[in-house]
Amino acid sequence: MPTGTQIRDARRQLLDAAERILLRDGPSALTSRAVTTEAGCAKGVLHKRFADFDAFLAELVDDRVARIEDQATALRRSAGTGGVADNLTGALIDLFDPVTVAVVSLIIFRDELRARLRRTRPPHSIPVLAEARAMIARYLTDECEMGRIATDADTDSLALALIGAGHLLFTARDGTPPAAGAVGEVVTTIVADVVQRRLL
Question: What is the pTM of this model?
Answer without folding.
Answer: 0.89
